[in-house]
Design a protein that fits this description.
By secondary structure, this protein is mainly alpha-helical. It contains 15 helices and four strands. The protein is globular and about 65 Å long.
Length: about 500
């Protein structure tokens, strides 16, 4: 397997064969540096992570602008069936993750991650530059497919690089800031798209600009191209591990790729902490994601609040997520990460069950906000625990697996939750008349409430499983926040 050698104060790269100690994988920002900490160091952990954070923010802004612009472009090109066109284009962004993400993780662990991120940003910019000239849905589908493949490479490369840029005790804070900029740029991107659409209407009357195909979506796409090129320029300045790559013929290359893929999965299977966190984050997403398709139904049938009530529920959920992520970044140094991760999973499941039990929208919003706080904590801490417990040479595969499971669980929640609500509602009416007496209180049992209860139980069960796993002794386990030799020991056991 390709092993990293380090730059920025770590000397010349060592391309000699044989294993190298993973203890060299100290944060690059502090290797060989004795300067006093600056404001950037205190807030972001290191200037290098600050640059990566800026690049992620610019890239995320471009991602969201592109998402909105491509959706609008598909609806316009779709003609008489815009819904089908949008569905096909969005499916092209979803499908690759189920099949290609684990393989992408193998190459992220094998190649120079800085070059991977730069190449992916440039590639996404070039793909988007072609979209203003798109005239058919198949072209949009192919472009969306290509964009998603490049994103599948960029994201695990970024996550695997964070521990090389910040001290171990700042990982939770770094991940909180990453999540904040990843999702906090969505409203900014939406507003920017609306503004650019208005500007495009005015620019469309300028004949000299007709060659650029200036339409409402195209101006946003051109701005999107600039954001990805800017992200590539920022990332190109980072000092990240350089990885040597051994060449092999086609047959051996395939066998090596498959072997490295199995190595990553085996590591996840034998390490209780990593296994618990991956399952906890992915499974915990089911509960939160079920609120999206079932929110309008419970708002109408249980809270009698209609569409406006659904908006209030989503606002409560989003506010809770923001509070959990931002709050964690403030107090993370004083928290035992694994215990808080388990407690947050249990809390998210409890809040979901309790929120679905309410008959008042206000009470439900309080509990949904509580679930959001717990879910944000689970997400941010989960990434930090993985980064602290996985050796550098395996992080790409581990995070690629995590993102694959997240996609699967989100898809299950979005597609199966409405069907489950319909099935449970039918059973409730047939067997119980849609009501039941609990402690002398008549409780309505619509299918949407039963489905959310089931989702809460699944999240709570994931918390119990995580609690059991993180307490289990294992030779391959390293304590959170440890690095160096502990990571090397775990990687060694995974290869044994």
């Amino acid at each position: 397997m390709a092993q990293p050698s380090y730059v920025s104060g770590a000397g010349e790269p060592d391309d000699s064969p044989g294993p190298r100690p993973v203890s060299a994988a100290r944060p690059l920002s502090v290797v060989g540096s004795q300067r006093p900490p600056t404001g950037v160091d205190r807030f972001f952990g290191s200037p290098s992570f600050f640059r990566l954070w800026l690049a992620q923010g610019v890239s995320a802004l471009g991602d969201w602008i592109g998402f909105v612009a491509i959706t609008a472009l598909a609806a316009r090109i779709g003609g008489r069936s815009p819904e089908t066109a949008v569905s096909l284009v969005l499916s092209a962004r979803l499908v690759p993750g189920f099949f290609l993400a684990p393989v992408a993780g193998v190459f992220v662990d094998r190649w120079d991650r800085r070059r991977v991120m730069v190449a992916c940003d440039i590639g996404r910019g070039l793909v988007l530059a072609a979209l203003p000239f798109a005239r058919s849905i198949p072209m949009l589908v192919l472009a969306s497919f290509a964009l998603e493949i490049l994103t599948l490479m960029w994201t695990p490369a970024k996550e695997a690089s964070v521990p090389n840029l910040v001290p171990a005790d700042r990982l939770a804070s770094a991940n909180s800031m990453s999540l904040a900029v990843a999702y906090g740029t969505f409203p900014v991107a939406s507003a920017l798209f609306a503004f650019l659409a208005k500007v495009a209407q005015w620019l469309g009357h300028i004949r000299a600009l007709h060659v650029l195909q200036v339409r409402q979506e195209s101006l946003a796409l051109w701005v999107d191209v600039v954001t990805f090129f800017a992200s590539a320029a920022i990332i190109s300045t980072l000092a990240l591990p350089r990885r040597s790559v051994r060449q092999a013929d086609g047959h051996h290359q395939f066998a090596r790729t498959f072997g490295e893929l199995k190595e990553g999965w085996r590591f996840i299977a034998i390490n209780p902490v990593v296994r618990a966190v991956i399952l906890g984050v992915a499974t915990g997403l089911i509960g939160g994601a079920m609120v999206v398709p079932l929110g309008p139904v419970i708002s109408k049938e249980v809270f009698d609040a209609g569409t406006a009530g659904f908006g209030v529920l989503l606002t409560a959920l989003g506010t809770g997520l923001a509070v959990g992520i931002v709050g964690l970044s403030v107090i993370q140094r004083r928290l035992p990460h694994e215990r808080i991760f388990v407690a947050a999973l249990l809390g998210a499941g409890t809040c979901l069950v309790a929120g679905a039990s309410m008959s008042s929208l206000a009470a439900a919003c309080v509990l949904v906000a509580g679930m959001g706080i717990c879910a944000g904590t689970v997400y941010a801490l989960g990434f930090s625990i993985l980064q602290a417990n996985v050796g550098d040479e395996l992080r790409g595969r581990v995070f690629a697996t995590l993102y694959t499971l997240i996609r699967v669980c989100a898809l299950l929640a979005f597609t199966l939750a409405p069907l489950l609500a319909s099935l449970l509602g039918s059973l409730s009416r047939r067997l119980l008349g849609g009501h039941a007496q609990l402690l002398g209180v008549d409780v309505a049992l619509p299918g949407v409430r039963l489905s959310l209860w089931l989702g809460g139980v699944i999240v709570f069960a994931a918390g119990l499983l995580a609690r059991r796993s993180v307490r289990a002794p294992a030779a391959g386990r390293a304590p959170a926040g440890s690095g160096g030799h502990a990571e090397g020991d775990m990687a060694g056991e995974a290869r044994a």
